[in-house]
Amino acid sequence: MALSKNVLVIVVVALIVIVAAAFYLTQTGPTAGGTVKVGLIAPLTGGLAEHGLDMKQAAILAVDEINKQGGILGKKVELVIEDTECNPTKATAAVQRLLTQENVYAVFGEYCSTVTLAVQPSIMEAKKLLFVPVSVATKITEQGYKYTFRTCANQWMQTTQNADWVVEHLKPKTAAMLGVNDDYGREGLKIWGDRAKSKGVKIVAEEYFDKGSTDFTSQLSKIKAANPDVIFVVANIRDAANILRQAHEIGLYKQFVMLGGVTSDEFLQLADDDALGLVHVSYFEPTSKRPAAAEFVKKFRERWGRNPAMYAAGVWDAFLAFKLGVEKAGTWDVDKVADAIRSLKFEGAQGTIYFDEKGQAQTKVLLVQVQKVGGKLKRVILYPPSDKQGEYIPPEKLYGG
């Protein structure tokens, strides 16, 4: 009988722990106290660490600014940062820590779309807000998740605007495509290729490279032999710099057009003069004259002593959406906050931001070209007209034929 009572006690205690844990994990608002925790996931080490640093510094700055203004609904924001290395397995473990140990109210991130897609279901199941400031995979906001909000243009938006501008202004008859062999690269090439073909452009080469590749001469040689008018590339920062350098080494000086991790001062330092003439997508430039953008750049420079890249702007705008959404809802109830965020329209670093019913921000992208201004490499905005800073220069004029 004593043994049975002990067993009964153990069972009761176990049930209490399970119920308490379930209650803890299903809370839709912060617990009592003066703070609310939020998490940031980003690649802070590895080959994408430059971009992760932009995300981290923007998040720290945003949280500091929010707390200086008294927090949100009387609560100070506490930031918990996790490194993902752009690795879905590591990111999944990090998100579990944020959800179970830190009990964060919202998660901000990631850079890599594969990581965001891997962790998104668990964040949604826990009824936490997910703000996506950088990952562009179209699928992220196409799955019907109520608590997911992306503050940058998705891949379809970025890539179609890129293709439209190229066809309209450069008028190519043929094009070649080169992309990283993953979901991001393949989706980018498919969208760009389909859009260009629909406008009469013939795709004469389509090549891929694996992550971690350092030699692109095989793919570039095939593209050179196809003699395209323009070359569309989807690549991250180091790959993009190597592609441009190796293309020029084999005498390939066609017009390169890119999507990926090339919108930063760090990329210009890596690529140096090989970046000259490159046209690429950006959804934020620190030279923007928009008041909200100028204010963000001023604060970022004062805090970190450098210019913010577009990834930092995406994070900044995500925290703005978070703060404004909670304040508009007037409560921490996650369902009411999600509804409030969908009804927002505000001026962020990237411009006017508002969300569709899927949680996707409706924003225009910028098309920029790397040119030399005052002897230094600069990204000059070509499109849209409201932000235009200069005229397109064809590569034969930049490289002398």
Break the fold down into its secondary structure elements and pairings:
Layout lengths: L1 H24 L9 E8 L6 H20 L7 E8 L4 H14 L4 E3 L4 H13 L3 E4 L15 E3 L4 H16 L3 E7 L2 H16 L3 E8 L7 H10 L3 E6 L1 H13 L5 E6 L4 H7 L7 E4 L8 H14 L5 H20 L4 H9 L2 E4 L2 E4 L11 E8 L2 E8 L11 H5 L2
Helix pairs in contact: 2-11, 3-4, 5-6, 8-9, 11-12
Number of strands: 14
Helical region count?
A: 13
> Strand pairing plus helix content: what structural class?
alpha/beta
Largest sheet: 7 strands, mixed
Which architecture of the largest domain per CATH?
3-Layer(aba) Sandwich
- Low-pLDDT residue intervals, each spanning 5 or more residues: 1-28
- Total domains: 2
Q: CATH superfamily membership of the largest domain, which one?
A: Response regulator
What does the average pLDDT come to?
Answer: 91
Mass-distribution shape: globular
Helix content: 40-55%
CATH level 1 class label of the largest domain: Alpha Beta
Strand/helix succession: HEHEHEHEEHEHEHEHEHEHHHEEEEH
Within the largest sheet, what's the order of strands?
Answer: 7-6-8-9-10-13-14
User: How much strand?
Assistant: 15-25%
User: Might you state the CATH topology name of the largest domain?
Assistant: Rossmann fold
Radius of gyration: 23 Å
Termini, distance in Å? 96 Å
